[in-house]
């Protein structure tokens, strides 16, 4: 160092890797330089834009590690099939041959996807209750907070539709517009007496689909063959669901257990579900049919999904069940047909 060179000052703020998970299960802890995350409505503080993507609720939500590779494969397969179908269509028209229905479906896929998205959006606009400061204000605020948390410049529209007992929500778009639809039954878990964090997690999950680009026209067109690719296509959709879960976890990680409990047992019994007990079974439920059920599923099976939401040190599993943590002793299963013993009664 030269004599007249000023002494460098130490950098203030968090270290270079403030969002690395800690502990065997990656239990999140507030990074250095940030206030601890209170269990309040506002969610974790928004980190600086230069922070890396990760699985911690304090960083930017990460895409699943297999999402982009699987997307590239599916898009390439779809493009090749579309070009072949277009060539066969031209040849059939010139030769006067009969056109196959599947051939027509592939050739007109761009128009069908565009029309389907437009009809879906119009259906919500004319039948759904649009969230606003006066209609479902809590949900409206959750959507706006999630959009801000994920760095979106435009808050998507949000609608509530009649659920008739179904637990569901989805995100889509048309043109440059994006929207979220929440079934009315989900708002019954959002009351002050129930689990508002669970609703916030679910809304963060759906807004996450938009933030991650899952609702764009070109992506959905490139994934047009997913229903005809049962293993490969479903794996891509599961990877996208894990990505959306990362966004929901980033928005309100305290709502993950209740949200999964709602998907497992419904809106009335969600608090009875033991999140850790069910997640533990991801490593113990094994067999060929277990693998097949997951491989053919469009969403991660619930036990694997709960495991991924609990273990934030790695991405959720797509094909092979999670491995138990070192030294972990899973609960001893009760033999089939036997009644498990009740816990001892308290003394006194």
UniProtKB/TrEMBL annotation:
<feature type="compositionally biased region" description="Pro residues">
    <location>
        <begin position="323"/>
        <end position="334"/>
    </location>
</feature>
<keyword id="KW-0378">Hydrolase</keyword>
<dbReference type="Pfam" id="PF01435">
    <property type="entry name" value="Peptidase_M48"/>
</dbReference>
<dbReference type="InterPro" id="IPR050083">
    <property type="entry name" value="HtpX_protease"/>
</dbReference>
<feature type="transmembrane region" description="Helical">
    <location>
        <begin position="68"/>
        <end position="90"/>
    </location>
</feature>
<keyword id="KW-0862">Zinc</keyword>
<protein>
    <recommendedName>
        <fullName>Peptidase M48 domain-containing protein</fullName>
    </recommendedName>
</protein>
<dbReference type="GO" id="GO:0006508">
    <property type="term" value="P:proteolysis"/>
</dbReference>
<feature type="region of interest" description="Disordered">
    <location>
        <begin position="318"/>
        <end position="348"/>
    </location>
</feature>
<feature type="region of interest" description="Disordered">
    <location>
        <begin position="1"/>
        <end position="22"/>
    </location>
</feature>
<keyword id="KW-0472">Membrane</keyword>
<comment type="similarity">
    <text>Belongs to the peptidase M48 family.</text>
</comment>
<keyword id="KW-1003">Cell membrane</keyword>
<dbReference type="GO" id="GO:0004222">
    <property type="term" value="F:metalloendopeptidase activity"/>
</dbReference>
<feature type="compositionally biased region" description="Pro residues">
    <location>
        <begin position="1"/>
        <end position="18"/>
    </location>
</feature>
<dbReference type="GO" id="GO:0046872">
    <property type="term" value="F:metal ion binding"/>
</dbReference>
<feature type="domain" description="Peptidase M48">
    <location>
        <begin position="140"/>
        <end position="217"/>
    </location>
</feature>
<keyword id="KW-0645">Protease</keyword>
<dbReference type="InterPro" id="IPR001915">
    <property type="entry name" value="Peptidase_M48"/>
</dbReference>
<keyword id="KW-1133">Transmembrane helix</keyword>
<keyword id="KW-0479">Metal-binding</keyword>
<feature type="domain" description="Peptidase M48">
    <location>
        <begin position="230"/>
        <end position="312"/>
    </location>
</feature>
<keyword id="KW-0482">Metalloprotease</keyword>
<feature type="transmembrane region" description="Helical">
    <location>
        <begin position="102"/>
        <end position="122"/>
    </location>
</feature>
<keyword id="KW-0812">Transmembrane</keyword>
């Amino acid at each position: 160092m030269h004599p007249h060179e000023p002494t460098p000052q130490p950098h203030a703020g968090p270290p270079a890797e403030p969002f690395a998970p800690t502990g065997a299960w990656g239990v999140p802890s507030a990074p250095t330089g940030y206030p601890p995350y209170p269990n309040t409505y506002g969610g974790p503080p928004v980190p600086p834009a230069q922070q890396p993507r990760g699985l911690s609720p304090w960083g930017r939500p990460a895409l699943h590690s297999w999402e982009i590779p699987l997307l590239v494969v599916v898009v390439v397969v779809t493009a090749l099939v579309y070009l072949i179908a277009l060539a066969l269509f031209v040849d059939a028209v010139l030769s006067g041959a009969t056109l196959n229905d599947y051939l027509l479906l592939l050739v007109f896929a761009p128009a069908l996807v565009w029309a389907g998205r437009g009809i879906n959006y119009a259906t919500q606009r004319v039948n759904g209750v649009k969230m606003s400061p006066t209609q479902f204000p809590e949900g409206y605020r959750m959507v706006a907070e999630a959009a801000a948390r994920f760095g979106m410049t435009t808050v998507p529209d949000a609608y509530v539709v009649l659920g008739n007992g179904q637990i569901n929500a989805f995100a889509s778009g048309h043109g440059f517009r994006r929207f979220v639809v929440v079934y009315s039954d989900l708002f019954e878990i959002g009351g002050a007496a129930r689990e508002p964090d669970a609703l916030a997690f679910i809304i963060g999950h759906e807004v996450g689909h938009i933030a991650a680009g899952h609702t764009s026209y070109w992506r959905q067109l490139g994934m047009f063959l997913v229903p005809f690719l049962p293993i490969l296509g479903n794996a891509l959709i599961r990877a996208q669901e894990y990505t959306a879960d990362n966004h929901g976890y980033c928005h309100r990680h305290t709502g993950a257990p209740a949200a999964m409990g709602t998907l497992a047992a419904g809106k009335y019994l969600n608090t009875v579900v033991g999140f850790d007990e069910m997640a533990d079974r991801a490593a113990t439920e094994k067999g060929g049919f277990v693998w097949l059920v997951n491989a053919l599923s469009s969403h991660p099976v619930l036990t694997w999904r709960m495991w991924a939401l609990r273990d934030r040190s790695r991405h959720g599993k797509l094909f092979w069940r999670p491995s138990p943590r070192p030294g972990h002793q899973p609960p001893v299963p009760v033999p089939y047909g036997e009644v498990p013993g009740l816990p001892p009664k308290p003394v006194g």
